[in-house]
Write a structure and sequence with these properties.
Protein name: DUF4328 domain-containing protein
Radius of gyration: 21 Å
Distance between the termini: 12 Å
Number of strands: 0
Pfam families: DUF4328
Keywords: Membrane, Transmembrane, Transmembrane helix
InterPro entries: DUF4328
Mean pLDDT: 84
Low-confidence stretches: none
Organism: Myroides marinus
Number of helices: 6
Order of helices and strands: HHHHHH
């Protein structure tokens, strides 16, 4: 088996950072909405230079946030690939898919929004079953509620995003723009919850995986 502990720790840290960056994005959005709600669009800024400086700052922040999100996502995929591959290395020969398929289920989740979470459950369940085969005193953990909740939030975020995009396509009024920003804030809140819950799931799964790693290597 491959020790996946350090990669899991990196994923957890990156997801927490992504969540905190999303809080910052939410703050910027709230401030923007507040200013635009209290003024007309021409009077929201004292000068064009103030507006340009604000926009540059937001663009830099958004770029950094996107780069961190991309790094977190790629690191997560590497961790999940190793976690799924470790099932076979631990002597579990009845896994349902190949390692590559397990990763692609996360890369293109729209093909089957629940498949990636099913595979996560498979890692949890089969790892713990293998641990119990080698350690009769082991008490299994139930992560189904956390995984199912995360899945519900991911699907909700996807549906809300599509709905807001379709609704806002032909809305060119000032009031509609503010409403779209407010709905975007709701999406940010959902994304914060998703990233933090994913960090929790990765942390718990990594603990199970670490236990399996120790038992298999000592057996």
């Amino acid at each position: 088996m491959k020790n996946n502990k350090s990669l899991a720790s990196t994923v957890v840290i990156l997801f927490v950072i992504v969540g905190l960056m999303q809080v910052g994005t939410l703050f910027f959005s709230f401030r923007e909405i507040q200013e635009l709600s209290n003024h007309n669009i021409e009077g929201a800024y004292s000068s064009i230079y103030e507006y340009q400086n604000r926009m540059r700052g937001i663009e830099v922040y958004a770029f950094l946030s996107n780069m961190i999100e991309l790094t977190a996502y790629v690191t997560f995929l590497c961790w999940f690939y190793n976690a799924y591959a470790n099932l076979k290395k631990a002597g579990i020969n009845y896994v349902s898919h190949s390692n590559s398929y397990a990763v692609w289920a996360w890369i293109i989740p729209i093909l089957n929004l629940f498949k990636s979470f099913q595979l996560t459950k498979e890692v949890v369940d089969k790892s713990q079953n293998r641990i119990m085969d080698l350690d009769e005193g082991y008490l299994p953990q139930n992560l189904n509620k956390s995984i199912n909740t995360c899945w519900i939030m991911v699907v909700s975020h996807f549906i809300l995003s599509i709905g807001i995009f379709i609704w806002g396509m032909n809305k060119n009024t000032f009031e509609a723009g503010i409403l779209i920003m407010q709905l975007g804030g709701v999406l940010n809140i959902v994304m914060i919850l998703i990233t933090l819950l994913l960090a929790f799931i990765v942390y718990k799964v990594s603990k199970i995986e670490e236990h399996l790693f120790q038992i298999v290597n000592n057996s």
